[in-house]
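Archive entry. Fields below.
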Amino acid sequence: MTPPFWGPYKAADSSPLVIGAPLSTFALDRVSAQLPEAVVERYVDRTGGAWAVIHADHLPKVAAFLKNDPELEFKLFGSIDAVDRLHLAENDPRFEVVYFLYSLKRHEHVRLKVRVSENQPVVPSLTSLYKGANWWERLTWDFYGIRFDGHPDLRRILLYEEFQGHPLRKDYALRDRQPLIPERPIKDIFRGPGTSGLS
Amino acid sequence: MADHAKPEDHAPNPDTDAYAHESELEAHLQTKRMVINMGPSHPATHGTVRLKVELEGETIVKIDPEIGFLHRGFQKSCENVTWTQCLPYTDRLNYLSAMMNNFGFLNAVEKLIGLEIPERAKYIRVIGSELHRLTDHLTCVGATGLEMGGFQPFLLALEFRELLFDRTAELTGARLTTSFGRVGGINRDLPEGWVEKVRKSLDRGEELITEMDALLTRNRIFVDRTKGTGIISAEDAIDFGYTGPALRACGVDYDIRKAKPYWVYDRFDFDVPVGEHGDNYDRYLVRLEEMRQSIRILRQAMDTIPAGPIIVDDWRIALPPKPEVYGTIEGVMSHFKLVMEGIQVPAGEVYDSTEASNGELGWYLVSDGRGRPYKVHVRAPGFPVLAAVPHIIEGKMLADLIPTFDTINMIGGEVEQ
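PREDICTED_STRUCTURE:
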């Protein structure tokens, strides 16, 4: 066989790939039907994952519907994180907060997104709805500086209180170090990834 | 008898009352709140976490876990290296079951690419995962026994763990930080005679587990300290996002290996143990039984593993064979491109999860098509589990904290990224 030489990989169309949990199209359809004003956009990503982009103001309502609707019951809290889209082609608004919930009844994941701008990075908190949201929201605040309105205890979680800035924003330099105690001045020590240890 | 509820009625006067000192012994104890620190490095806990505990007597009024001592900038590091170079970082997430993290990450990347890996690679991934599920549970169960005062179960657990780490080292070249597997399959095939060695290790391991079971499960001290302590209800556990053994101990039957079988898990016959009370004892029992089920899966997988390639034959994904690299221009250029620029994962996003030893290990990956991850979100199973500790332990005794902290099996590496 002559293997393909080089270039981006493209999956053959003839082999539809089914890995992972069934997709939550059913849940998103119900959300669209019940709360049409909350849904900004719906799309399916290249791997077949269904997403819904939700208005920040309507997020608690959508989450409450997903959790309490007897046909859905998305009660198992997955996680929260954000994406800083600064270097992506489509980057306005800058941040995307992503939510993952799981339904033990339907055995499906549901994926939600909320887009917030750099000037006003505020999302309503889900802590009153899901106990698990508490720490994930703190993590997102810590890493991206996105505030969660209504969170009872929005402190940094992994980094220390004295830390300046939010390290997972794309404009935070990879080698920007903020040690609490002075580091020993070893010139040739190589810290972290990158092309050169000196920059 | 002095009345404990109303100590002021019987307040002794030392000048007039000849037996005042006796009444004082029975008087209501005046307690004041005390804040103590457990950790970051505490002899009775394993893992680096600082617990700020507010005590009233021996009752915990408030507890505030402070995490982040092992924070290494996992996500930021991954965003600045190629997809393959992320692999060593994933080792350090759960350093007791590194292969599960490796394979979970690779699985998500392959899904993002849209790639099906060879059959034999899937079997090797199952074998590696189950080996490391055993080592993880052994550490948890052994350390729980140790911290409840039983040294022997810990030694038994470590003996089995050492056997498995030796097998891991023969397979991957490293005991803990395996960096095993590559996008598209596995980088090394099973060594000659390795399967027989694993079978022998498992035979010995079953004896060790039985012995550990006999020493702990009906041990009065162990049962008294774990049964009925650290209880979390199924509703709360789901609300917090519990997965894995901690959720199954509450009676919720959710295992990703059964719910959406990935690789070849649907071909094996195994049971998912489920607890009832959600307390420390049930979490311990679930882990103990899961080890036996892992051994079952391992035996079946080693019996039925097919021959064949272990990595896809596509030079845009996997390194070309060495004769091609040295002998052909296409080979050497593909090799160079793969090493220098990395796999060109097309732009897109994906969420995928596998069942790691402590629960759902989820990955949300975003690629911008430039050869490096744009975003690597990891849903570490230990994170929600630790987040619920204040909920579980507030209002309970200080002594319950240690078994609870043991059986939830918080791993600093994955929680603190």
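CURATOR_NOTE: Helices of chain A lie at 25-34, 59-68, 133-144.
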